[in-house]
Each structure stands twice: as structure tokens, then as C-alpha cells.
Design a protein that fits this description.
Elements (H helix, E strand, L loop, with lengths): L2 E6 L6 E6 L2 E7 H4 L10 H26 L4 H9 L5 H13 L5 H15 L4 H10 L4 H8 L4 H9 L3 H4 L4 H14 L4 H24 L1
Antiparallel strand pairs: 1-2, 2-3
Length: about 210
């Protein structure tokens, strides 16, 4: 079987059409076609290998695009690729390539996840563990990422914007709402109560100062 033409696709950048014996046969990524020459003979095995390599190349490009939105865990990537009807062996190849290129690292991902939560929406360790478990991160990796987490500080920062909603309430309602808010974000009862007591004390001091003026 003679390769008679290699033509760039108009609508898909980076892909080319392969013509065998003057007829369209299949398409591949341009990077794979770079080693081909018009006029060369291709065996059935060579064509099978070329198309298999193209499957991996397309999956790799898709995985890179999926990673471009935010870092992902290995399990997230595997589930994403499985939905694209790739075999376990093909997924292993793509994942291995991503790891070698340092685009995939569960330890770095877990650290990113905790740091991102801390910066934008603080969570307690209980909630963070649950979120990372759902991403398929191993228990040891999760614990390493949570090492050094100051949950009291996180709870104080998490509660701060919520105070505006509750500060006009009486004590029982304030305690119920703020403690519930913090516990829903994965903070323990003891931390939630300590933080609530701190903010209630501040509010009560402000009220006493206002009443006394």
C-alpha cells in the first residue's frame, strides 16, 4: 500500500489526511505524519501502529486541554479519559506521559487544592479530606497536604464575611446560625463554638459601647 498524499485538514489545525493508493484512508496528528513520506510503502501493521499512536496523541491533547482549566488529580484524568472510550492500556500510556512531563502529580494537586480553598473559601480539615477523597487522592497524600493547616485561623476567616448576616441577631440565633455555617464547611464543633464565642464577644462589646455612649 503506497502513501500517495498527505494533506492538512482545513477545519482541524494540527491534523492531516492520509491518502493510500490515491484514496483517503484516515487522519492523524501532524506530528505523527512528520515521519512519513509520500511514495513510501505502508504495511497493515504500520498503519495499525500509526492509528494507535494517533489515538494516544489525541487523548494526550485532550488531557492537556482538560488540565488547562485547573490542576487535576490522576483519578480525575483517568475518569475523564475513560469517558472517551479509551482502554485501560491507552489511559496508562497517556497518564504516564503526563507524569513524565510533570503535568500530573497528586501531591502537587492536593497542595494546590488546600491552598486554593484557604485563599478563597476556607474549609475545615474534615471537608478538605472529603473533597480530596472524591478526587481519588490517597490518604497519605491528603494528610501531607493538610499538614500545618491552622484550622482556627481558617475558621476565623471563613466566619468573618458571614458575621454581617448574623450580627443583628440575638445570642441564641447568632450561635445557631454561625456554628451551623462553620460546621457545614467542615469545622469541628469545638472550633465552630470557639470562633462563634469570639465573634459574639466582639459584637456584645460593640453593643455595650453603643448603649453607653
Amino acid at each position: 500500500m503506497k502513501l500517495t498524499a498527505i494533506r492538512a485538514q482545513r477545519r482541524a489545525s494540527g491534523r492531516v489526511n492520509i491518502y493510500i493508493d490515491d484514496e483517503y484512508a484516515f487522519s492523524v496528528q501532524a506530528i505523527l505524519a512528520a515521519r512519513l513520506m509520500v511514495g513510501q510503502e505502508l504495511s497493515k501493521d504500520q498503519i495499525t501502529e500509526l492509528r494507535a499512536a494517533d489515538t494516544i496523541e489525541k487523548a494526550y491533547e485532550r488531557a492537556l486541554n482538560y488540565l488547562s482549566y485547573r490542576p487535576r488529580s490522576e483519578d480525575e484524568i483517568r475518569r475523564y479519559l475513560a469517558k472517551r472510550a479509551l482502554s485501560d492500556g491507552e489511559i496508562d500510556q497517556v497518564v504516564g506521559r503526563l507524569k513524565r512531563a510533570r503535568f500530573l502529580d497528586d501531591r502537587a494537586f492536593a497542595e494546590f487544592w488546600v491552598e486554593n480553598r484557604e485563599a478563597f473559601r476556607p474549609r475545615g480539615s474534615w471537608a478538605l479530606r472529603g473533597e480530596l477523597r472524591q478526587k481519588g487522592v490517597s490518604p497519605d497524600t491528603i494528610e501531607a497536604a493538610l499538614e500545618g493547616l491552622d484550622e482556627m485561623d481558617s475558621a476565623m476567616r471563613a466566619a468573618s464575611p458571614a458575621i454581617r448576616r448574623y450580627r443583628q441577631q440575638e445570642r441564641d440565633d447568632f450561635y445557631r446560625h454561625l456554628m451551623g455555617f462553620l460546621q457545614r464547611r467542615g469545622f469541628s464543633y469545638s472550633i465552630a463554638r470557639t470562633v462563634t464565642e469570639h465573634y459574639w464577644s466582639e459584637i456584645q462589646s460593640e453593643r455595650d459601647a453603643t448603649d453607653g455612649s
